[in-house]
Write a structure and sequence with these properties.
The chain is of the alpha+beta class. The protein is 39% helix and 18% strand. Strands 2-3-1-4 form a four-stranded antiparallel beta sheet. Bound molecules: adenosine-3',5'-cyclic-monophosphate.
Length: 142
């Protein structure tokens, strides 16, 4: 039987979660949930890079604050692979606002506010592709 590779999503561990020492626990949850790590990077986004990443939100009132926050310290970016990856990962991380997230999700466990909600996860296959291309070239994917 052919083994299906599954689809892919893009995540970032956000600056506050990195600073609080939650990279390891979050990666452990990702691992236990059965995602395969295709690519991974530890880096600090510049203001312009954060602006470009979140360009879809440029007209939202929280855009400037979000850009400042996301460039305030290092993040971990990763491409994750699993069957139905975008939806599976959104289920693992929970609602955007940690207050509304289900018990046991990443954001409920490690998020502290709507902005500092521990992780980003792509909201569609199309955006997963765009966001993965933002961080990773083809020779950085395994
Ligand atoms: P993320 O999944 O990274 O996508 C956009 C981010 O904007 C979101 O998580 C939140 O951290 C942040 N954000 C701040 N304010 C809001 C808001 N009012 N609605 C949605 N997202 C917000």
């Amino acid at each position: 039987m052919e083994i299906m590779a599954g689809s892919r999503t893009l995540t970032m561990v956000k600056p506050t979660a990195v600073q609080k020492g939650f990279i390891g626990p979050i990666l452990s949850m990702i691992n236990k949930a059965g995602f395969r790590i295709v690519a991974m990077k530890y880096m600090k986004l510049s203001i312009d890079q954060a602006k470009a990443f979140y360009l879809v939100h440029k007209d939202r009132p929280f855009y400037n604050d979000l850009v400042t926050f996301m460039s305030s310290g290092p993040i971990v970016a990763a491409i994750l692979e699993k069957e139905n990856a975008v939806e599976a990962y959104r289920n693992l991380i929970g609602a955007t606002n940690p207050e509304n997230a289900t018990e046991g999700t990443v954001r409920k466990s490690y998020g502290t506010s709507l902005q500092a909600n521990a992780v980003h996860g792509s909201d569609s296959d199309e955006n997963a592709g765009i966001e993965s291309d933002f961080f990773f070239s083809m020779i950085e994917r395994y």
